[in-house]
Amino acid sequence: MLRYARRVCAAGAGNAGRCCATRGKDSAPKLALAKVANGFHDPVGVTAANDGSGRIFVVERAGRVRVVDKNGKVLPEPFIDLTNFNPLGSDV
Fold first, then answer.
1. How many degrees, rounded to 5, is the angle at CA 7 between CA 71 and CA 44?
2. Which of 4, 13, 24, 42, by CA, is between 20 and 30 Å from 88?
3. DSSP annotation of 10
4. Domain tally, the chain
5. CA distance 42 to 38
6. What percent of the residues of the chain are helix, what percent strand, and what percent coil, each to the nearest 5?
7. Backbone phi, then psi, for 53, in 5-degree steps?
């Protein structure tokens, strides 16, 4: 989990304060999280764009991938919407 958090934090380095992963005196990882955005419907995954844009992609269980820009704003249109192909539909 720490490796994943470091990858997300490093990719969003221009967005200071979003999260921080460090090691304490006893070498145990310490992790702090901060809410970046809200309004998601059952989010199940998150990853950074890793393209220097500072964007974050949030996967919703129903089949949508939403984009959070470097300022923490959720874009109105999803990156991709697969709810029509999800056997559970958009009402998951």
1. 75
2. 4
3. H
4. 1
5. 11
6. 15, 30, 55
7. -85, -20
Give a yes or no: residue 49 inside a domain.
yes
Q: Is residue 50 a contact partner of residue 36, using CB atoms and an 8 Å limit? A: no
pLDDT tens by residue, 39-84:
999 999 999 999 999 999 999 998 999 999 999 999 999 999 998 8
Does a structural domain hold residue 92?
A: no
Neighbours of 72 (CB within 10 A): 15
Q: Which residue in 24, 26, 30 sits closest to 2, CA to CA? A: 30
Domain that holds residue 75: 2-85
**Best CA proximity match to 34, nearest among 47, 16, 22:** 16
| Tokens coding 91 | 């009402």
Q: Which is nearest to 62 in space by CA: 86, 40, 78?
A: 86
